[in-house]
Automatic annotation (TrEMBL):
Residues 265-307 are annotated as: Disordered. Residues 290-307 have a biased composition (Acidic residues). SUPFAM superfamilies: Fe,Mn superoxide dismutase (SOD), C-terminal domain, Fe,Mn superoxide dismutase (SOD), N-terminal domain. One of its GO terms (biological process) is response to light stimulus. Residues 265-283 have a biased composition (Basic and acidic residues). This is superoxide dismutase. It catalyses: 2 superoxide + 2 H(+) = H2O2 + O2. GO terms for cellular component: chloroplast nucleoid. Residues 57-134 form the Manganese/iron superoxide dismutase N-terminal domain. Residues 142-260 form the Manganese/iron superoxide dismutase C-terminal domain. It is found in: Plastid, Chloroplast.
Length: 307
């Protein structure tokens, strides 16, 4: 069968998600299975691709004894690497090869009807974000605006911790728990919003199965914990609650969470300004000039009189 005949194309329109990283207002993305264009090969015939196996922002033994070097050797060294390698094999030579990792995640989510690279792309994104959610001597409490918003939206810092722990502990099977800043307009072009009745501009806790990432719901992730078994089995065996408690008490980088909150709020504010600009342009384009209308009506009258 010819490659072109075997190609299966799926497309979607990028609406709201354009503001998450896509440029332009609306575009079509086409995934062509079995299609390989502009395949790049190094001089020795090795296929090259772009997504990196990004290391954590600390040495692999820096979180001991809470998260051991052995866990990093497997989790970062083998699991994370496998997602990167598999993703690069999937996207090389396709339109996705030139996109950012975030764009690939959003493009391949495809309203929940996942395109082939989604799981690997999202798992690469999720793991990078997870490593950067921790630091040596982390844990404790945040401060400043982050702490104030946690108190505002959960009642107290302790209530937030309990809700986050519960989400992580009750995610059945593999997945993730998240603290996110939710500032969308409920008009999510690429996904089903899981909390459509919630207020905007607030912090919420959500959990997600497998590789799903709240970016696809148009939320801004601030903190995550990996609750796939490979994340904790070497250090905690089947004691997922102990792993979650250790993460919250000893490992969370509240500095990273605060920086992400600042960026999320700035992004939401920029989106509001952009929407306001578009609204004004739309209104301006649909308004009738009262003076022109008067002239038009007067012209009708003249015609009638002439008859
Ligand atoms: Fe993982």
């Amino acid at each position: 069968m010819a490659a072109s005949a075997a190609a299966v194309a799926t497309s979607f329109k990028c609406g709201v998600f354009c503001s998450n990283g896509f440029s332009g207002s609306t575009r079509d993305f086409h995934w062509h299975k079995n299609e390989r264009r502009n395949i790049k090969r190094a001089s020795r015939g090795v296929i090259t691709a772009k997504v990196d196996h990004k290391p954590p922002p600390y040495s692999l033994d820096a979180l001991e004894p809470h998260m051991t070097r052995e866990t990093f050797d497997y989790h970062w060294g083998k699991h994370h690497r496998a997602y990167v390698d598999n993703l690069n094999k999937q996207i090389v030579g396709t339109e996705l090869d030139t996109k950012s990792l975030e764009d690939i995640v959003l493009a391949t989510y495809n309203k929940g009807d996942l395109l082939p690279p989604f799981n690997n792309a999202a798992q690469v994104w999720n793991h990078e974000f997870f490593w950067e959610s921790m630091k040596p001597s982390g844990g404790g409490q945040p401060s400043g605006e982050l702490l104030e918003l946690l108190k505002r939206d959960f009642g107290s810092f302790e209530a937030f911790v309990n809700e986050f722990k519960a989400a992580a502990a009750t995610q059945f099977g593999s997945g993730w728990a998240w603290l996110v800043y939710k500032a969308n307009r409920l008009d999510v072009g690429n996904a089903v919003n899981p909390l459509p009745s919630e207020e905007d501009k607030k912090l919420v806790v959500v959990k997600s199965p497998n590789a799903i990432n709240p970016l696809v719901w148009d939320y801004s992730p601030l903190l995550t914990i990996d609750v796939w078994e490979h994340a904790y089995y070497l250090d905690f065996q089947n004691r997922r609650p102990d792993y979650i408690s250790t993460f919250m008490e000893k490992l969370v980088s509240w500095d990273a969470v605060s920086s992400r909150l600042e960026a999320a709020k700035a992004r939401a504010a920029e989106r509001e300004r952009e929407e306001e600009r578009e609204r004004r342009e739309y209104d301006g384009g649909n308004q009738t000039d009262p003076e022109a209308e008067e002239l038009f009506l007067g012209s009708d009258t003249d015609d009638a009189e002439a008859d």
